[in-house]
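May I ask for a sample protein chain and its fold as tokens?
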Amino acid sequence: MERGADISVVSFHKTLPAFLWEGEMASFAELPDTIVFVEVKFRKSDTLTSPFEAVNFRKQQNIFRVANSYIRSRKINKNVRFDIIGIVAGSNGQNGSGQNSSRHNRIEHIEAAFSVFGG
């Protein structure tokens, strides 16, 4: 994601029929020639599944439906990209005094993580 991109979170589902949105919220960034829909996934741990694995084919299809409806309703004529930001919580360690040391979340960003054509 380009630095300085405006990121918006829209409760767009309120204007869509329930069968289209299935609980989706649209997070996106508008770049000069591209609109980037961003799926953000948080996990306490990635031992069972990573945040990226959670964006399976069904989830991608839901995101496509919301993105398509948003683009059509706003008559947007830009390239479209689908990114995923995965966040895994850092573990709480203890320092020598028995107090919790600081947590550091791991954040990864995959640009063009999937497309309408699969992948």
Summary: The chain has one domain: 6-114. The two ends are 19 Å apart (CA to CA). The domain at 6-114 is CATH 3.40.1350 (Trna Endonuclease; Chain: A, domain 1).
